[in-house]
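Case study.
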Amino acid sequence: GAVVSQHPSRVICKSGTSVKIECRSLDFQATTMFWYRQFPKQSLMLMATSNEGSKATYEQGVEKDKFLINHASLTLSTLTVTSAHPEDSSFYICSARVSGGGYGYTFGSGTRLTVV
Amino acid sequence: AQSVTQLGSHVSVSEGALVLLRCNYSSSVPPYLFWYVQYPNQGLQLLLKYTSAATLVKGINGFEAEFKKSETSFHLTKPSAHMSDAAEYFCAVSSIGGSQGNLIFGKGTKLSVKP
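After joint prediction, the assembly is written out as follows.
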């Protein structure tokens, strides 16, 4: 089945530094990647949608300069949290829409970001 | 606009008992509906999906859900709960042919299973 590999699974960084999260589609081409953020005991909130070779579309209220998304190839999308602050601590999950084998979505395993 | 409402943020059942997790949706276009399970600090695993074919959908691990248009519901059931079913469950909706095509999630229901 379609697999998205997300790394790192867990990262701790100092306030003011940047962190990059990678999502790779292992056995299919992900033309569209969705990035979600999940606060403790809450649901997933869509942050942005990235399409290969074009600029990402950000949801209202999401700072595009803080959360940089790059989707340079059909198998790799990255989310960089720039100048991270403790309030950016959260669980970030990527998801790709799978067009073959029926309409569906596959998710990365998530990244737990802790900013200290 | 589309939305999903999950009734009950926390459901507790005994091992072997029926599991019923409720989901109601709102959509102005024919929806695609999904149930996902999430274990702590992990991503989401698809349990089942409805994509306008059979209204009774069977998924993995013995789960199934029935799409009821008249009730705008897509409740998840399992005849007999196992301890390993304890997790967070999310219902989600996506629009057919939507420009973005992203999933819209409910707030989730935490399922606890008592021995």
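Observations recorded in class. The two ends of chain A are 37 Å apart (CA to CA). The CA atoms of residues 81 and 96 of chain A lie 20 Å apart. We will return to this complex in the next lecture.
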